[in-house]
Amino acid sequence: MMKIKPLADRVLIEPMSKEEKTKSGIYLPDTIDKERPEQGKILEVGPGKIDDGEIVKMTVKKGDVVLFTKYGPQEIKVDGKTYLIAREEDILAVLE
Questions:
Q1: Which class for 13: exposed (0-12), middle (13-18), buried (19 or more C-beta within 10 A)?
Q2: pLDDT tens-digit map of 19-41
Q3: d(CA 89, CA 7)
Q4: Residue 86 within a domain
Q5: Could you tell me the pTM of the whole model?
Q6: What span, in angstroms and rounded, lies between the C-alpha atoms of 43 and 68?
Q7: DSSP 18
Q8: Which domain holds residue 56?
Q9: What is the pLDDT, as a whole number, of residue 20?
């Protein structure tokens, strides 16, 4: 895989699809017409935003599972796989 290193306050996210289950217990597969996922695992983190000449460190780290805004991240495809690049401000929460 090509190495992707986000710049500034951006993070590289591997989207995680939510399994949906019907009332009768049948799991529905993730299909192309479903909405974009809103959670994922951070694969890489940029150094941080530059504010007044100083680098403001990121509050998220590699390996965190996060919730993010639906349309904030940019979708990219590398080696046939889909990833998201988001600004730290697009991340709403870290899931523990």
A1: buried
A2: 555 667 665 555 544 566 689 99
A3: 14
A4: yes
A5: 0.79
A6: 14
A7: P
A8: 10-17+34-95
A9: 57
